[in-house]
Amino acid sequence: MKQLFLLTLLAATTFRAFGQAGGIFTPRSNAVFQRNTTTTGGSTIVTFSGQMFVNNNLTYQIEKLDKNGNFTGYWKTAQAFPAGSISNLGNGAIFHFTLDVPTGWYLFRVNAPESGNWEARFGVGEVFIIAGQSNAQGAGDVHLISTTENLDCVSGNRNAPFGDFGDLWIPTFTRIDPWNPKIGPRGDRPWFWQELGNKIAVRELPARVVPVAFYNMAHGGSSINNWYDSMLRVKQMYNNNYGNIMTYGATTTIFNPWGSVFDSRLPYSDLRDFLSYYINYTGVRAVLWHQGEAETKTLLSKHGSANYTSGPVPGPTMSPPSPAYAIGDYESKLKAIIAESRVLQPNLAWAISKVSLIGNNRVNPNLTVDQISSNTANGGTLVTPLGNYQNVGSVVQEQIDVQATTSNVVWMSQNSDTYTNRQTDKTHFSEANLVNMADDVYNNMGTIISKTPILPSALPRLSLAKNGSFDYTASTTGIFSIYRWKNQFPLSPFEQDAPNMGSSYNPSPVGGDPGFSGYAKTASGRIVPIVPWVYINLVPGARIGSDNTENEAVLENTSLFPNPISKKQYLNVSFSTTVESFMKIRLLDQNGFTLKEINKDISKGKHSYTFPLEDIEMDAGAQIIYYHLETVQHNEVKRILLMK
Fold this sequence. Notes:
Immunoglobulin-like, single chain, Rossmann fold, alpha+beta, eleven-stranded mixed beta sheet, 4 domains, five-stranded mixed beta sheet
């Protein structure tokens, strides 16, 4: 399996977002798309798009893969593209079509005999959003990452670069393994999610493998107040209508019950962005919610327990002020958050956990909060409710009420407080607890999957009309209210604070544009990429007409050696230009992160540069990096293989 997956990574999605002419743009390599079933099997609509160097003898095929990524047969044998799916571009072509694909892992291959083949691995299965606080995000010294041969079942969104509240980027996906442990945008470890994903992957064998993907946007220490208050703040950014253009407004800070300070738009802004954009690309089954320890922390602080350090109690005296805190608000605020998530994704399913434990000390569970606060016989220790009884002020009871009285909400974990023997902080799960949690959630998976999912959208098609040399008009069809276009690479985000550019785009000045990319937004606030993103500069036959070709020199190709290369060697680069020019050289990892960059003005002639790879920080398990050179006479990307 490792060999196959290595080959897939080397070839998949070679039409990189940072600008190489040709390749598959969608599906993104290792993406998982939500299936339509509420039982087993099922399928979903997948958008296939990309750009080829040639437009002759093009065929495509889709291979079926087993749980280990091995070829098992053809879903679609080699065949011509569907009628109307290909548009000519110079001597090349761009394509766009959709297929209803059954559950499973696949390898999509475009066969272009004159320019080479292109591949992208993708799956149709189950997609989940993780939300809550640190026992959903992951914390402490425990990782529980598989060190054995892991199934190709769990993809994490390494959505990078990520962080600016105004920018939404094309997602990238990777397997969870010891070299890629993150579940983006917030999770820094597999936690119990990889274990859960592996269980889901094989639940329908031998009939089929079920691919699984997670997005983790949990925030450590966040309270229900933090989630609710940030939800109100995010709504203000869109003037209470997500279809509007975003305005930043004044940045403020908020506290969690441990006294940590963070931006007032967090954590809800992460959830809103994914519901607005990323879920339209992949679809989703449900939000997996695990949060409640912060409320216990607040009660402990409020009632002066000697067993825990003091912390701020949310109330009017805080800076900035927040509404007075009452544990009874938990139900109403979580319900409000669920309702707001359904503004963007109607009837989105939620699965919530019973959770409140932040310590191993317990007292009589029949005491009320008031009795606990004056309970000197037990040293003033606050009970941590187990949720199997009626208790005034119980965090778990509030969660029970939410599940019982809110539509399309089921249990994720029904007993997470019972997993004791935690890490030394007495709050975060130990490795044994993580196994327990994976089992607990998996035991409820049939109920979770029984809820109707949100399916991926069919992505709108990018069309190009040629007006003259280097002069194209890009457009798309569909009912949208806001369009954003770009005619430059590398990665281009949807800028949520930028104005509408209309349904067609002709850049000014027209000369020198490297390509086109675009996004569209509906009146309800749902955002989709317009695909494929197309690269113009190096398309054979695209540079005709008024281009000044009579003095254009035949340039040397870049010399790049050694390749393959070990991480202890020096990478040597040389190239020539016949004019003075700006120059940009970048080394990038397989997800588009810049590892090293040089920007300068250069004279005409030959130029050489040397990069000691051992001085460049990259993932320990990296098997490939990319070299990108840009001058007025070059715009090229080359793949560099890394040897151990």
